[in-house]
């Protein structure tokens, strides 16, 4: 991999990028826990009520058959409690297990095996791209990518798909799904009962999207976008934007067509220390490959000049001027 | 956004992450999740068991009452007592179930707190939020970059889907080589070596220049597949082995291994010391080899520009966010220069040195067209601004050696 990332660096990045990866399944866990509690409380109170009725009857010398029918009621309520409890626990256990799976995946960033480590990095980029695509509304692409990369468990597709359903229903001027979402999430959307003009609906959809993101503590930009911006800046140099295009490098990502346009408004990298790269070979110029200046002022690595030397002459690749090999002067970079 | 002050940044040291402390962040959350899982398990078992018992107990009572000719008769005192006890037990049990579940709440919320403590809930950009917000244009370019990346990674169906969903049109010229590669890859996934071999033969010369062993590996796989067909395939396999001839020098050992395996054809290769030849991993490996070599021939690196930029961002982002926090905390409003430059250097490793950068050792600034690097007579290089600053009485003394020289003798260099 071109970019070196130490384990410590990976951990720092985890801290900054992975909050949504863990928080969203946690919110689901929380939600399901509360739902479970509600279910258990409700069924428990049903059972208690029926039992209280039975107790009351017992105190008044009842006939056997009235007791039997009340007992049937108790059995029924207990069964319902059992069923609901099992279902609810299963649901909350499922979301806890999802949290566990995600944290286990994140832990793999520190794997010793290089193959596992680079697989993890590939998946990381795919995960962030999926989230980005979901934000853009490209749901099918996101789902396909998640499936192909084997990361379906690790991305918050469901959350976005739920949002998509709500948005689509709003576009159909229906509030039912959105209200259900509000109820589910106790948001502050207003209840719309009257016909509204298209602009209000547009605004409502935007508002919903904004609130949904805020609810899940997702900012305006995807993690992917923010990471990419930082990355492009860290690579960008003035040479990537020279008018005549003479300084472009075939390996430099920022020199590539699309990324060149994207990186234009971004800040450039800050380089406190010199580093010289030979224009011919792309190799570093240092004490092992000293920088040599030709009489026209262009500098190349010693090794490269050796390799293009013919009959003791060299041709400057950029100006096509011909010089003697011995005319190359060493330059000293501190 | 506040401008980045430059001067005093060097004095501040960034917190250096210690590996153990950093790993702790995942472990910390995991601990809480494990506790919750344990509690759910225990509670679930207990809940089911208690309710089972209750139902059983009540069921027994009901059976007792329903039996014999007890209908219509009043409930006996004994039974009444038993019933009351049963009622009490039911109430106590279910109420305890409810409160036991409630007790798990604190463990659940501890998970959330661990996440909040160990991961940053706010991520901020290096630049203003809206820098890529001329919504249509930049977003479209970004989508295009993603599509190009997907093609290069061999994820053609995903790329096609994105083109459709974002209504992007990709140049056929750009797509063409990837379409061919994908066709070959799909054939390889179906264990059809034909298209790949055809491609390898037609690109033989360039592959040899790359030191690629793709063609040989393809022949080898075909041979192995014949072997897997059993003793009936022996003649065919032997006949196919002539394809190894041109590779005899470079791949002698591997050829020997394969010819040696013929001995076990009758017995079955799976039980022989050559069973590893039948590994499925060979098929995965050939896809990778093919993709790598094909990309090289296309002049593409294995990692797309988008991959490299993203990986670079993963390194840069925490560093920049850190600096931003420090600046805001100390409310630094010192002199700043170049707000279109990052405030700090990001170490990406030597493989990411794509362009020459010359930072004047005296003024500690990157040179530019307006302030180019100048080679002094002694061979030392400084920026023109630095040179001008060093002029004293029409003469110039190099800061690195005692050589005095004429400013006009300085030569502008281009890296």
From TrEMBL, chain A:
<dbReference type="InterPro" id="IPR044063">
    <property type="entry name" value="ZF_RING_GID"/>
</dbReference>
<feature type="domain" description="RING-Gid-type">
    <location>
        <begin position="252"/>
        <end position="319"/>
    </location>
</feature>
<dbReference type="GO" id="GO:0043161">
    <property type="term" value="P:proteasome-mediated ubiquitin-dependent protein catabolic process"/>
</dbReference>
<keyword id="KW-0963">Cytoplasm</keyword>
<dbReference type="GO" id="GO:0005737">
    <property type="term" value="C:cytoplasm"/>
</dbReference>
<comment type="subunit">
    <text>Identified in the CTLH complex that contains GID4, RANBP9 and/or RANBP10, MKLN1, MAEA, RMND5A (or alternatively its paralog RMND5B), GID8, ARMC8, WDR26 and YPEL5. Within this complex, MAEA, RMND5A (or alternatively its paralog RMND5B), GID8, WDR26, and RANBP9 and/or RANBP10 form the catalytic core, while GID4, MKLN1, ARMC8 and YPEL5 have ancillary roles. Interacts with F-actin.</text>
</comment>
<dbReference type="GO" id="GO:0043249">
    <property type="term" value="P:erythrocyte maturation"/>
</dbReference>
<dbReference type="Pfam" id="PF10607">
    <property type="entry name" value="CTLH"/>
</dbReference>
<dbReference type="InterPro" id="IPR024964">
    <property type="entry name" value="CTLH/CRA"/>
</dbReference>
<dbReference type="InterPro" id="IPR045098">
    <property type="entry name" value="Fyv10_fam"/>
</dbReference>
<keyword id="KW-0265">Erythrocyte maturation</keyword>
<dbReference type="GO" id="GO:0061630">
    <property type="term" value="F:ubiquitin protein ligase activity"/>
</dbReference>
<protein>
    <recommendedName>
        <fullName>E3 ubiquitin-protein transferase MAEA</fullName>
    </recommendedName>
</protein>
<keyword id="KW-0862">Zinc</keyword>
<dbReference type="InterPro" id="IPR006594">
    <property type="entry name" value="LisH"/>
</dbReference>
<feature type="domain" description="CTLH">
    <location>
        <begin position="159"/>
        <end position="196"/>
    </location>
</feature>
<feature type="zinc finger region" description="RING-Gid-type">
    <location>
        <begin position="252"/>
        <end position="319"/>
    </location>
</feature>
<dbReference type="InterPro" id="IPR006595">
    <property type="entry name" value="CTLH_C"/>
</dbReference>
<dbReference type="GO" id="GO:0016363">
    <property type="term" value="C:nuclear matrix"/>
</dbReference>
<dbReference type="GO" id="GO:0008270">
    <property type="term" value="F:zinc ion binding"/>
</dbReference>
<keyword id="KW-0863">Zinc-finger</keyword>
<keyword id="KW-0479">Metal-binding</keyword>
UniProtKB/TrEMBL annotation, chain B:
<dbReference type="Pfam" id="PF13445">
    <property type="entry name" value="zf-RING_UBOX"/>
</dbReference>
<feature type="domain" description="RING-Gid-type">
    <location>
        <begin position="360"/>
        <end position="401"/>
    </location>
</feature>
<dbReference type="InterPro" id="IPR006594">
    <property type="entry name" value="LisH"/>
</dbReference>
<protein>
    <submittedName>
        <fullName>Required for meiotic nuclear division 5 homolog B</fullName>
    </submittedName>
</protein>
<dbReference type="InterPro" id="IPR024964">
    <property type="entry name" value="CTLH/CRA"/>
</dbReference>
<comment type="function">
    <text>Core component of the CTLH E3 ubiquitin-protein ligase complex that selectively accepts ubiquitin from UBE2H and mediates ubiquitination and subsequent proteasomal degradation of the transcription factor HBP1. MAEA and RMND5A are both required for catalytic activity of the CTLH E3 ubiquitin-protein ligase complex. Catalytic activity of the complex is required for normal cell proliferation. The CTLH E3 ubiquitin-protein ligase complex is not required for the degradation of enzymes involved in gluconeogenesis, such as FBP1.</text>
</comment>
<dbReference type="InterPro" id="IPR044063">
    <property type="entry name" value="ZF_RING_GID"/>
</dbReference>
<dbReference type="InterPro" id="IPR006595">
    <property type="entry name" value="CTLH_C"/>
</dbReference>
<dbReference type="GO" id="GO:0061630">
    <property type="term" value="F:ubiquitin protein ligase activity"/>
</dbReference>
<dbReference type="GO" id="GO:0005737">
    <property type="term" value="C:cytoplasm"/>
</dbReference>
<dbReference type="InterPro" id="IPR045098">
    <property type="entry name" value="Fyv10_fam"/>
</dbReference>
<comment type="subunit">
    <text>Identified in the CTLH complex that contains GID4, RANBP9 and/or RANBP10, MKLN1, MAEA, RMND5A (or alternatively its paralog RMND5B), GID8, ARMC8, WDR26 and YPEL5. Within this complex, MAEA, RMND5A (or alternatively its paralog RMND5B), GID8, WDR26, and RANBP9 and/or RANBP10 form the catalytic core, while GID4, MKLN1, ARMC8 and YPEL5 have ancillary roles.</text>
</comment>
<dbReference type="GO" id="GO:0043161">
    <property type="term" value="P:proteasome-mediated ubiquitin-dependent protein catabolic process"/>
</dbReference>
<dbReference type="InterPro" id="IPR037681">
    <property type="entry name" value="RMD5B_dRING"/>
</dbReference>
<feature type="domain" description="CTLH">
    <location>
        <begin position="177"/>
        <end position="234"/>
    </location>
</feature>
<keyword id="KW-0479">Metal-binding</keyword>
<dbReference type="InterPro" id="IPR013144">
    <property type="entry name" value="CRA_dom"/>
</dbReference>
<keyword id="KW-0963">Cytoplasm</keyword>
<feature type="zinc finger region" description="RING-Gid-type">
    <location>
        <begin position="360"/>
        <end position="401"/>
    </location>
</feature>
<dbReference type="InterPro" id="IPR027370">
    <property type="entry name" value="Znf-RING_euk"/>
</dbReference>
<dbReference type="Pfam" id="PF10607">
    <property type="entry name" value="CTLH"/>
</dbReference>
<keyword id="KW-0862">Zinc</keyword>
């Amino acid at each position: 991999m071109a970019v070196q990332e130490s384990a410590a660096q990976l951990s720092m990045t985890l801290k900054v990028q992975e909050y949504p990866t863990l928080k969203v399944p946690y919110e689901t866990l929380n939600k399901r826990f509360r739902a479970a509690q509600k279910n258990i409380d409700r069924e428990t109170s049903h059972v208690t009520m029926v039992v209280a009725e039975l107790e009351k009857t017992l105190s008044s010398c009842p006939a056997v058959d009235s007791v039997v029918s009340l007992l049937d009621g108790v059995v029924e309520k207990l069964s319902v409690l059992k069923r609901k409890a099992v279902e609810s626990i299963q649901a909350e256990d499922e979301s806890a297990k999802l949290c566990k799976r995600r944290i286990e995946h994140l832990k793999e960033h520190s794997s010793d095996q290089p193959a596992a480590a680079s697989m993890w990095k590939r998946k990381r980029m795919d995960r962030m791209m999926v989230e980005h695509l979901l934000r853009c509304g490209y749901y099918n692409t996101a789902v396909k990518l998640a499936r192909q990369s084997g990361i379906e468990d690790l991305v918050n597709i469901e959350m976005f798909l739920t949002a998509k359903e709500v948005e689509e229903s709003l576009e159909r001027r229906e509030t039912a799904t959105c209200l259900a979402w509000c109820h589910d999430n106790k948001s502050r959307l207003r209840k719309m009962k009257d016909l509204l003009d298209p602009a209000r609906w547009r605004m409502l959809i935007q508002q919903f999207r904004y609130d949904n993101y805020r609810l899940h503590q997702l900012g305006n930009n995807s993690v992917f976008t923010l990471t990419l911006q930082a990355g492009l800046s860290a690579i960008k140099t003035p040479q990537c934007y020279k008018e005549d295009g003479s300084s472009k490098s075939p390996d430099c990502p920022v020199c590539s067509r699309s990324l060149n346009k994207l990186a234009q408004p971004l800040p450039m990298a800050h380089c406190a220390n010199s580093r010289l790269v030979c224009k011919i070979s792309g190799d570093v110029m240092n004490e092992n490959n000293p920088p040599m200046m030709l009489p026209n002022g262009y500098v190349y690595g010693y090794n490269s000049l050796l390799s293009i030397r013919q009959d003791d002459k060299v041709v400057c690749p950029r100006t096509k001027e011909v010089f003697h090999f011995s005319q190359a002067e060493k330059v000293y970079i501190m | 956004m506040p401008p980045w002050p430059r001067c005093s940044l060097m004095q501040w040291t960034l917190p250096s992450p210690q590996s153990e402390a950093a790993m702790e962040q995942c472990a910390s959350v995991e601990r809480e999740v494990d506790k919750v899982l344990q509690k759910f398990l225990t509670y679930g078992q207990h809940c089911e068991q208690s309710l089972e018992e209750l139902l059983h107990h009540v069921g027994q009572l009901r059976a007792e009452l329903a039996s014999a000719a007890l209908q219509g008769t009043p409930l006996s005192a004994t039974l009444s007592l038993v019933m009351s006890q049963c009622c009490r037990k039911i109430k106590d049990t279910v109420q305890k179930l409810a409160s036991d579940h409630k007790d798990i709440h604190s463990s659940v919320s501890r998970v959330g707190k661990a996440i909040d403590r160990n991961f940053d809930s706010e991520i901020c950009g290096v630049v203003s939020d809206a820098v890529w917000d001329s919504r249509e244009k930049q977003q479209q370019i970004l989508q295009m970059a993603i599509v190009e990346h997907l093609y290069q990674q061999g994820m053609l169906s995903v790329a096609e889907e994105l083109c459709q969903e974002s209504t992007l049109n990709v140049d056929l010229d750009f797509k063409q080589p990837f379409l061919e590669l994908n066709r070959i890859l799909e054939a390889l996934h179906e264990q059809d070596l034909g298209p790949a071999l055809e491609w390898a033969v037609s690109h033989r010369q360039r592959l040899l220049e790359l030191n690629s062993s793709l063609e040989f590996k393809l022949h080898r796989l075909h041979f192995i597949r014949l072997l897997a067909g059993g003793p009936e395939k022996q003649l065919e396999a032997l006949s196919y082995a002539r394809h190894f001839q041109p590779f005899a020098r470079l791949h002698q050992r591997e050829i020997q291994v394969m010819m040696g395996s013929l001995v076990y054809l009758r017995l079955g290769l799976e039980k022989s010391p050559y069973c590893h030849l039948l590994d499925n991993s060979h098929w995965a490996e050939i896809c990778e080899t093919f993709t790598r070599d094909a990309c090289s021939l296309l002049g593409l690196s294995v990692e797309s520009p988008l991959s490299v930029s993203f990986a670079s961002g993963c390194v840069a982002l925490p560093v920049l966010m850190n600096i931003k926090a420090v600046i805001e905390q100390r409310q630094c409003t010192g002199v700043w220069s170049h707000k279109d430059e990052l405030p700090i250097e990001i170490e990406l490793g030597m493989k990411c040195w794509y362009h020459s950068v010359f930072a004047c050792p005296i003024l500690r600034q990157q040179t530019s067209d307006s302030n180019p690097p100048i080679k002094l007579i002694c061979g030392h290089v400084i920026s023109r601004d630095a040179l001008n600053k060093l002029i004293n009485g029409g003469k110039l003394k190099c800061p690195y050696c005692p050589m005095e020289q004429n400013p006009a003798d300085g030569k502008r260099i281009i890296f």
